[in-house]
Design brief:
Oligomer: single chain
Number of strands: 27
Mean pLDDT: 87
Low-confidence stretches: 1-48
CATH superfamily of the largest domain: C2 domain
CATH topology of the largest domain: Immunoglobulin-like
Number of domains: 4
Distance between the termini: 57 Å
Largest sheet: 6 strands, mixed
CATH architecture of the largest domain: Sandwich
Length: 719
C-alpha cells in the first residue's frame, strides 16, 4: 500500500494526484480521445476556413499582406473554390484601381513594383524575405521615401537609416520620418521614440545611462537634427534634447503605418471605392468625347480661388428620364477628383441629385442636352481634375479630364484668366452671389460648353475674363490699364483685327480682382478658324499678360446654347459647413503650406464651430507650433464626439499638461478610456500624467497595461 501511495503523479495545475498505474492503463484511451477531439476541432476549423492552396496562401500572406483589410481577409478565407478566389483577387485589385474598368491598373503595378524592390533590396541571409523586414513593410506600405539618409556605425552610435516622407493620407501627418537602426550587422529594425528610446540607438555605457545620455551622444556624433528626430519622427513636435522626453505621437503614427489597411480612413475609402466599382460594373463607361467640360479658376469675394466647371452631354438621349404616374424623375451622380501634378489624389467631391419633374417642367427641358455646373476650392498650384458624370437611370458614365494651373500672384504680377465665351448673363440675388457657379461681380454667366466654339456670321462673340493683381500691389499714378483684343485667322495674313480698350484701376476690388468682358461682332468674318488674344499692359513696369480663345466661324450649326441646366445643389451647405475651407486646407497641406492650411481650418470653424475635421487639423497645427495654450483653448470650445481622433486627444492632453494642468490631462484621458476601446497609447500617456501628479503606483500599473496593449496590437498587425 505504501509503495502504491508513493507512485502518484502530480498534474501540476489542479492540485490532484493520479496513481501512475492508473495513468498507464488509461493513457492509451486518453490519447485516443485527445486525437478524436483534435480531429473534431480540425474538422470544425476546416469547415470554417477551407484549406487554401499554396498559391493563394502566398497571395494572402505575402502579396497582399500589408494592404488587405481584416474584413477582406476574413471573406477570402471563407471561399471554397479556386474560381471564387480568382474572382475575389480580381475584384480586390479593381476596387483599388484609380480608374475602374480601365485596361491597366496603376495601383496594382505600383504595389508589385514595391514588393519586388523590397525583396531585392531588403532581404537578409534568408532567401527573398525582404518583404517581411521592417524596411520592407514600410516601403511596401508607403512607397519610396522622398529623402533617405544613411549613417554607419560610429562613436558608439548604431548604424541607422532615416527615411523622410510626405503623405496625403488623412490618418498620417503631412510630413514625417521613419528611423531604422542596425540591431545586428545588416539587420535593420524599426525604431520607436517612446517605447525604444534613444538608448536603443547607442551601445556601451551610454545605453545603460538612459535617454538623456544616449541622445546627447547621438547629438555629438550625428548632429542636432538627427538627435531631435530620434525624439520625434514628426517635424515640429515639442521635444527637449536636455530631458530627452518624447510624446506618444510618433509611436501612434508607427502603429497606424503598421496597420494602415485597417485604419478607419482607409476602410471608409475602401468602401467608397467598392461602391464606385459596383456602380461602374453595372454601367457602361463611355469615351471622353461624349462629355464636354469647361473649367476656369475665378477669385471669389474674399480673394480665394474656386475652379468653376461646367459639364455638358453631347446628345439629349445620353441622359435618361423615367416616368411614374403623372410625374417624371431623373437621377444623376457627379464625381470630381482633384489630383496634384504628380497624380496623387488630394480630395474628391461627389454629388447625387435625384428629383421629380412635373409634366410642364419636363416639356421645357425635353430634347435638350443636360449640362451640370459646380465649383471646387483651389489654391495656387498645378492640378489634374477628373470628372465622372453618371446617368443613373441610363446606367451610363461619361468621363472628362482637365489640366488646371492656378498661378501664385506676386506683388508685381498681373494675371488674366482664359476668356470664357457665354451666351447669357444676368444679375443675381446678392444672397446667392457667393454660391452660384460661374458668378462673378454679381453677374451669373451661362457659358458655351463645347469642344470647339462655333458661331455663324452675325452672332456676337461674347466672353468674360477676370484680371488678378496682388492686394499688396503698390499704388501708382496710373489710372487705367491698356487692353488689346486681337483676333484673326492665324493661317491667313491680313485677317487680323485689333480693338483697343482700357481697364480703370478703380474697378479692382480690395482683393485685387476685376471681372471684365467684351462683345466682338462677327458679321464681316469669313468662315474659318480664329484665335482671339487678350493682352493687358501694366504701365508701371510695362509687364504684358496674355490669354487666348479659339473659335470658329461656320455657315451653319453653331454651338448649342439650349441646355437643361442642373446646378450642384449642395454648394450652399458646402460653404456653411466649412467643408469647402477644409478641402482648400488639404490642398495647402499637399503643397507644404501648413500656415495657409491653418488659416483655412480657422475659416472653416468660423463658418461651422462643429466641424470636427477642421478642429482636429487646427489642433495638430498649433501643437506643432508649440502653441499649447491655443490647443487647450480650441479643444475646450467644443465637446468630444465619436469623430474626435486619438491623435487630437493626445495633443490636447499633452497641451493641458504642458500648460501646468496635468490633472486635467489625466481626467481627459480617463474619460476617453471609459468610453472607448482600450488604447496602448492613451494608457501610456495617462501613466506619464500620473507620474507628474506624484502617483507612481497608479502610473506604473497604467504603463504596464499600455505596453501590453501596444505589444498585442503589433503582434496582431503582423501578417
Amino acid at each position: 500500500m505504501a509503495r502504491e501511495l508513493e507512485c502518484y503523479t502530480d498534474n501540476g495545475n489542479s492540485g490532484m494526484r493520479v496513481p501512475r498505474r492508473l495513468l498507464r492503463r488509461t493513457l492509451p484511451y486518453l490519447l485516443i480521445c485527445c486525437a478524436f477531439l483534435i480531429a473534431l476541432g480540425s474538422a470544425a476549423l476546416a469547415a470554417t476556413h477551407p484549406q487554401v492552396p499554396a498559391r493563394y496562401k502566398k497571395w494572402l500572406q505575402q502579396d497582399a499582406a500589408y494592404i488587405i483589410a481584416n474584413e477582406e481577409k476574413k471573406a477570402f478565407l471563407q471561399l471554397t473554390s479556386d474560381l471564387e478566389r480568382d474572382q475575389f483577387i480580381d475584384h480586390f485589385w479593381e476596387v483599388r484601381n484609380p480608374t475602374p474598368g480601365a485596361p491597366t491598373n496603376p495601383y496594382k503595378e505600383e504595389h508589385y513594383a514595391r514588393l519586388e524592390f523590397a525583396i531585392s533590396h531588403f532581404s537578409t541571409s534568408r532567401a527573398e524575405d525582404g518583404w517581411q523586414t521592417d524596411m520592407g513593410r514600410v516601403y511596401i506600405t508607403l512607397g519610396p521615401p522622398e529623402q533617405k539618409a544613411r549613417y554607419v556605425v560610429q562613436g558608439g552610435v548604431r548604424g541607422m537609416e532615416i527615411w523622410f516622407y510626405s503623405s496625403g493620407h488623412p490618418a498620417l501627418p503631412p510630413f514625417f520620418s521613419v528611423i531604422f537602426y542596425e540591431k545586428d550587422p545588416g539587420d535593420f529594425r524599426l525604431y520607436s521614440p517612446y517605447v525604444d528610446g534613444p538608448q536603443k540607438l547607442v551601445t556601451g555605457i551610454q545605453a545603460e545611462q538612459g535617454r538623456v545620455a544616449a541622445v546627447q551622444q547621438i547629438d555629438r556624433i550625428l548632429g542636432r537634427e538627427v538627435a531631435l528626430t530620434t525624439l520625434s519622427l514628426i517635424p515640429g513636435e515639442p521635444v527637449n534634447i536636455n530631458t530627452a522626453e518624447s510624446t506618444l505621437q510618433s509611436d501612434l503614427m508607427l502603429g497606424t503605418i503598421k496597420d494602415l489597411a485597417n485604419n478607419p480612413f482607409s476602410l471608409e475609402e475602401l468602401r467608397t471605392r467598392r461602391a464606385l466599382v459596383e456602380e461602374v460594373s453595372h454601367r457602361v463607361v463611355l469615351p471622353n468625347e461624349l462629355l464636354n467640360a469647361l473649367c476656369v479658376p475665378l477669385r471669389d469675394g474674399s480673394g480665394n480661388v474656386r475652379l468653376h466647371y461646367a459639364l455638358r452631354l453631347s446628345q439629349p438621349e445620353d441622359f435618361a428620364v423615367a416616368q411614374a404616374d403623372d410625374q417624371y424623375y431623373y437621377s444623376l451622380e457627379v464625381l470630381v477628383r482633384v489630383l496634384g501634378a504628380d497624380g496623387k489624389e488630394i480630395f474628391t467631391r461627389r454629388r447625387k441629385i435625384a428629383k421629380y419633374l412635373s409634366k410642364a417642367d419636363f416639356d421645357l427641358v425635353k430634347g435638350q442636352p443636360v449640362a451640370y455646373e459646380g465649383w471646387l476650392p483651389l489654391a495656387p498650384g498645378k492640378y489634374k481634375v477628373d470628372f465622372q458624370f453618371t446617368s443613373v437611370l441610363g446606367k451610363t458614365t461619361f468621363t472628362a479630364q482637365q489640366d488646371v494651373t492656378v498661378p501664385q500672384i506676386g506683388a508685381q504680377d498681373v494675371f488674366i484668366t482664359d476668356p470664357v465665351p457665354f451666351f447669357q448673363a444676368a444679375a443675381v440675388d446678392p444672397s446667392q452671389a457667393d454660391v452660384l457657379p460661374f458668378t462673378a461681380g454679381g453677374v451669373r454667366f451661362r457659358p458655351y460648353v463645347a469642344k470647339e466654339l462655333a458661331l455663324v456670321p452675325g452672332q456676337e462673340l461674347k466672353f468674360f475674363y477676370q484680371v488678378w493683381r496682388s492686394p499688396l500691389a503698390p499704388g501708382n499714378s496710373v489710372d487705367k490699364f491698356p487692353l488689346d483684343y486681337a483676333y484673326g485667322m492665324p493661317s491667313f495674313s491680313g485677317s487680323a483685327h485689333t480693338i483697343h480698350d482700357e481697364l480703370p484701376r478703380d474697378q479692382f476690388d480690395p482683393n485685387g480682382s476685376v471681372v471684365n468682358g467684351k462683345k466682338i461682332p462677327t458679321t464681316d468674318l469669313s468662315p474659318g478658324s480664329y484665335r482671339l488674344v487678350v493682352s493687358l499692359t501694366d504701365p508701371q513696369n510695362q509687364q504684358k499678360r496674355f490669354s487666348a480663345l479659339h473659335f470658329n466661324i461656320v455657315s451653319d450649326k453653331s454651338s448649342g446654347s439650349d441646355s437643361w441646366w442642373i446646378d450642384d445643389d449642395g454648394l450652399a451647405e458646402y460653404l456653411t459647413s466649412g467643408q469647402a475651407n477644409v478641402d482648400r486646407g488639404v490642398i495647402y497641406i499637399a503643397s507644404g503650406n501648413t500656415k495657409a492650411a491653418a488659416g483655412e481650418f480657422q475659416n472653416a470653424l468660423r463658418r461651422n464651430p462643429a466641424n470636427e475635421t477642421a478642429r482636429a487639423r487646427l489642433i495638430d497645427y498649433y501643437y506643432q507650433q508649440h502653441d499649447f495654450a491655443k490647443v487647450t483653448e480650441l479643444f475646450s470650445q467644443a465637446a468630444m464626439n465619436s469623430d474626435t481622433g486619438e491623435s487630437t486627444i493626445l495633443h490636447a492632453a499633452d497641451s493641458f499638461d504642458r500648460t501646468g494642468n496635468p490633472q486635467k490631462a489625466a481626467t481627459l484621458l480617463e474619460s476617453v478610456l471609459n468610453d472607448r476601446s482600450p488604447s496602448g497609447a492613451l494608457y501610456l500617456a495617462l501613466a506619464s500624467y500620473y507620474d507628474h501628479l506624484g502617483k507612481s503606483d497608479r502610473a506604473e500599473a497604467l504603463r504596464a497595461k499600455g505596453r501590453s496593449l501596444i505589444t498585442a496590437t503589433a503582434g496582431t498587425a503582423n501578417p
